[in-house]
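#onboarding

Welcome to the new folks! Below is a worked example of what a typical request in this channel looks like: someone posts a single protein sequence, and someone else replies with the predicted structure as tokens. Don't worry about understanding the tokens yet, we'll cover that in week two.

Example request:
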Amino acid sequence: MTQDYSDRFHRAQWRFIIYSMIAYAFFYITRKNLSMAQPEMLAQGVITKEALGTILTVHGVLYGVSRFVNGFWADKLNGRIFMTIGLALSALMNFLFGCTSLTILFAAFWIINGWTQGMGFPPCAKMLTHWIHPKELATKMSIWNTSHSFGSAAALGLCSLLFAMGYGWRWCFYVPAALAGLAAVFCFFCVKDGPAEDGLPELDLSDVRGSTESNETRKVTDADRRRLVFSNRVIWLCALANFFVYVVRFGFLDWGPTFLKEYKGIPVSKGGLMIIAFELAAVVGTIFAGWFTDKVFKGRGVRTCVFCMFLTGLCALGFWYLPAGAAIWKATLLLMGTGFFIYGPQALIGIVAAQQATNDAAAMANGFMGIMGYAATTVSGLGIALISKHFGWNAALLSIGGFALVGMVFFLFAWNANATGYKAEQ
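Example response:
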């Protein structure tokens, strides 16, 4: 590889990472905006807590199914176009959600949004494995994964600003819809499906495949993809662990502003800022987890996940133990600790799936992770709503901490797994 080509590829690679991060963040802006709007919707009697919890659950489950189904197609189709269509449709669903006042239409638009949201991550997972070599995937894909946190923080900050300016909850959907529409145009023209679409040769993976066969001449069948995903013990263990990762993550993200208001009496505007702090800590935690995985565990992400889940559980239980009259800064620090540690596994599970399934089936593997992760909304959505209603927020937080420790156990079972599913050892 010449120095000129190496420099060109390096610049194109980082251009792809940054552009796709920006585009993917808007999937979160058109999904996590509901977390900020829901306290006002509940206070105005626009929707009931049970109905909202049911919508969150169905939305999440369908999103998981969508990630799985779209993972199959994303491995075969152009990721840039696939992603653009999903983002444009999510923008439309957000606009329609803001226009209605009927529970049945809230449910219809948000559930459809769950499907279109599932068109975002699978093509990104595929494209990342075509742009980044397995030896540095954990570090660079962890950096890319901060788009989740930036998107969530942007949604919370944008909605907080709209409320501070006197706008109602509907604008939490109108403004993100307009911005996401522009982001879809940006995605179509700026994100590249792979090096070839940017005028560069594909990555040389002969050192990890144990074969000199080129990427262009390799033939991968659907049966090959299914074998890479469903016959891999590590992928199954991580998929089961992902259920518990997402219970914790969405327990705080979906209900954070609401439980801070009801449990601590903290206004929605300040509660939103606390959840933004949670997300900013997650950015640092995500990058650190990827760097730590590559440098200390040589790409074995499940090992980092074991420690992250244990410390997540301690932070969540610490928040549960915190006295009702404790200072806000103490609650904020515990929330930040939870965000720092839970986003390590959230990012690394996708990386482990991509590494284990190789770039032949990275999208399908991440789709499978998604269907297990978003099945967790049966607990983080309606489950948390019912627990908090009948037993209080103390019981809900105690449950979330316990789930983090259960997730740790599944990661422990995969402790000795190889770093990747490629034929050659790294």
